[in-house]
Amino acid sequence: MVELEETWTEKSFYDRPLTVWLGEDGCDEKSSPLLDVFTAASIGSYQRVKDILKEEKNVCNHKNQGGWTVLMYAAYYAHSEVISLLLEANAPVHLCNNDGCNALMLAVMCGNDNIVEMLIKAGSILETRDNRNWTALFHAVNSGHHSVVETLLKYRVNINSCDRVRGMTPLMYAAQLGDARMVSLLLRGGAVVSLTNPQGHTAVRIAKDAGFPDIAATITQWDHQGLSGPSLFDGPAAVEARRTHLQPQTPRTRGNVVPSLDNANVQPTDLETLLDQIGLSSYMSIFREQDVDLQIFLTLTDQDLKECGIQKLGPRRKMTSAIARWHSNAPLRSTPECAYADKLEVEMQELGVKLTEALQTLQQTKTQINQENNLRVVTEGWVVEARGRLHECHQLCQILIEQVAAACHCASVLSAQASLGTSPLIQPALISTIVDTMALIAAQVDTLMALTDPSVPRGPSNLTSPRKQGYRSCPNTPR
């Protein structure tokens, strides 16, 4: 055992039996049990794992009592060679242990960034959640492994994901833990600082409550200026807020024209004021003719403006942008930085209208489907009832056939007696008519039996249909 303790990291011991590892003296190594696959993977015994894979290829799917697989042990202890061997053997990367953690999460917990990258390339899903509703990014933030977070961000992990138990984002957890470097890393990766937990607290509030005012100040400063100034993707409201915070001194000028921004932040209370702010007051007469006030104007789309008589594209685009800015509570000033944001806002308004129409169409379709289902239920009830009556009619026809057969037998007896002259009152002509009539009745009953047979399929292609066979309703039957 002393020798094992002094050289326990030597690879020469990796393939030795368990008795050597347990320090049992006087035991024959040849008769001693070898390392199991889980132990071999945990200590990085490449050859032992390879030998086991040759004996049983399905060993990669086996789990121990804790739900751990061979790949999980190799990922947890960062044995890259064993992981490569297991991945070549198609070891599943999506299996989870009893805690809901997969191999990627276990590698993230231990900060094995190179193993994390190997598992991601092998197809491990970044957004898988464990029993705590955490993804791999939450484990990386909680463990404080900055290099692992960088690796996850490199492969486009959802940095703003939220655990559905506490309602916290990775940025909130980093702020709560007081990890300034992690907070900065997440901010640079695109974490949204305005998200709130179920209590309505942002990451700034969480950092303050946890006793980290410096981190709260860092997040606040980032919220105001970001990495390289305002971003067009933040929308017009955020752009204007950041511009106001960063450049409150003098508005931009173009040539000798100085734009007037004194009334840009004044929220108009009527349509004329709004059109005057965007420089389109000349179109007020058109809206007066159409009886359009501010409330109606804010619901118009580009097609509605065209129907009102505004044919020029430029004024229509300005109006739709003003409507979009009104609904997003953004100022009505026009700046080059907001052009792209205006375009997105207008497209969102149009998509919202289309979505509403699609929802209405979907609701109408659901109503029609419900009506058709109800009609189908009623129709199936009628069909079942008709089949029941058809079966009863078939049974009655069978009884009638038996009665007709008995009558035919009696008629045959009377005919025989008439021919022998034993009954002088019986007229042979009458007996012949009775026999012919009974034969015709029997033929009609046979036809009715075929039509009412429940075992015969019914439908337009059924060759037993009366119209296709030319059946008539017994016109020669005597009255």
Automatic annotation (TrEMBL):
SAM domain: residues covered: 266-329
Region named Disordered: 244-263, 454-479
Membrane-spanning intervals of the chain: none
Keywords for this protein: ANK repeat, Coiled coil
Recorded superkingdom: Eukaryota
Keyword Cytoplasm: no
Name of the protein in question: SAM domain-containing protein
Organism: Cherax quadricarinatus (Australian red claw crayfish)
Lineage of the organism: Eukaryota, Metazoa, Ecdysozoa, Arthropoda, Crustacea
